[in-house]
Amino acid sequence: MADMIAVQELVKNYGEFCAVNHISFTVPEGKIFGFLGPNGAGKTTTIKMLTTVLDPTSGKILVNGHDPTREQKQVRRSFGIVFQDPSLDDELTAYENLDLHGVLYGVPHGERRKRIDMLIDFVGLGDRKKNLVKEFSGGMKRRLEVARALLHKPRILFLDEPTVGLDPQTRNHIWGYIQQLSKEENVTVFFTTHYMEEADRVANEVAVIDHGKIVAQSTPTALKETTACATLEDAFIALTGHAIRAEEANATDRMRMMGRAWRGGGRR
Amino acid sequence: MRAIYILCVRQLKRYVRSPARIIGSLGQPILFLVALGFGFKAMFARAGGGNYIDFLSPGIISMAILFNAVFSGIEIIWDRQFGFLKETLVAPVSRIEIVLGRMLGGALVALAQGLIVFVICLIAGFRIKASPYVFLAVVFMFLISLLFAGIGTVFGSVLQDMQGFPLIINFLIMPIFFFSGAIFSSQGLPKILQIGLRLNPLSYGVDGLRGACSTAFAYGLTVDLLVVTLVTAALLAIGSYFFSKIQL
After folding, report:
1. B69: distance to nearest CA of chain A, Å?
2. Is the pLDDT of residue A156 over 60?
């Protein structure tokens, strides 16, 4: 089986700070790979490098056989992504957001309409598709982003904490569909989450990253066995310690606060 | 091409959907038009300058375009902070297409605002001299829109947050407006200011627009058109370059 994602000795430095420190892993086609780690461990930085929006300091990446730093278009065509932060246009309707995505990804007009209708119903927003996204709750936006990521039938799905703010019903619904995609259409899934039982249930393989280094990588079952823990959550704590991580507020957080103050709240 | 088109459409949709912004950004040009236009009208006529509203209106129209176009570029910062930028940056289209779509959309929005202000100026008493140049008014307005959408894009791409925004407005955009001949002509100015006016690309835009409406060009139609077109082309290229360097 071919590797859909292959990472070798990947490094990302921000000045003195090393966010990702010589990590290597592979994800075979059709597998669901859980990338776990405390806040600030380097998960999102890794995803950014895999998805062509951040250049690595050193190391090698192949996504669907292409190098994200040189063959950006081929890499971008291969994946769909749900970002950690919302990335919809609030001033457009749900349908328009998906339509814009479909146009950017070159999905032909007829097929685009069919898939948008199908996916928007699937995430339970069928009767809201003409509403502006700014009227949506955090959970509804999340669902719409999942639908959007699937619109162009990607070979790989990147999900950066996709289920934050979703109720158990929606979580199960979405994971059920993703598992089905992986099984029936051989879609490869790379996800991060802080919900360990979720990772335990859906991941074929997990890697635990801490301080920019991968500290463990195996199946969830094997990970529990080697750490002699009953749950993946305990195994995770055993591997990464109890210390709570400080994460620096970045420009985005400051800006969000400003935006909130400006618009009188209401934004998730 | 499809990316340029859809991103352009996106900006136009956002524009027509926010009447608050449309009306809000008319406030400043109307204030300048009324306060300066009527405030200095009598003095300007007494000094032999003719009708000040006719002189001022092209400057006020340019001002509306200037601010809206720069703001459309700066909007990249908002899109970065509120996430939509990421969606476009991971799409399988070149950055050049994305940025051209954005700049074109922003320029069309600025042009629309400029046309609204144009109508307001006509209501305030602005009179156009019928001449073969009149259609050039819209050409100059569109070129100024593109030019400053390019400048806005440079700043939107380089800045990480809105902290630097007042700096740009007060130390770049305001001086560009005041020293463009929008509200006074360069005749009789101190030498240093005259040079400043000659180096300011908006001067040629304002003069082109004024000339198209009155047939009197201070720098000459060819010079105006040439300078504005070349600077616009350069700034579109520079804006594209900086946008293509964005990392998340």
Report:
1. 19
2. yes
**Chain A residues with CB-CB distance to B100 below 8 A:** none
Domain ranges for chain B: 2-244
Q: A94 is written with which tokens?
A: 């749900």
Decide if pLDDT at A32 tops 70.
yes
Segments in chain A forming alpha helices (H): 43-50, 72-78, 94-104, 109-122, 138-150, 168-184, 196-202, 220-227, 232-240, 251-263
Size of interface A-B (CB pairs under 8 A): 87
Superfamily the domain A3-87+156-261 falls into: P-loop containing nucleotide triphosphate hydrolases (3.40.50.300)
Asked if B3 lies within 8 A of A48 by C-beta distance, the reply is no
Whole-structure pTM value: 0.88
Question: Residue ranges per domain, chain A?
Answer: 3-87+156-261
Cβ separation B87–A76 shorter than 8 A? no
- Token output for B137: 């008014």
Q: How many Å lie between the alpha carbon of A221 and the closest alpha carbon of chain B?
A: 34
Q: Check pLDDT > 60 for residue A264.
A: no
User: How far apart (Å, rounded) are the C-alpha atoms in residues B109 and A31?
Assistant: 46
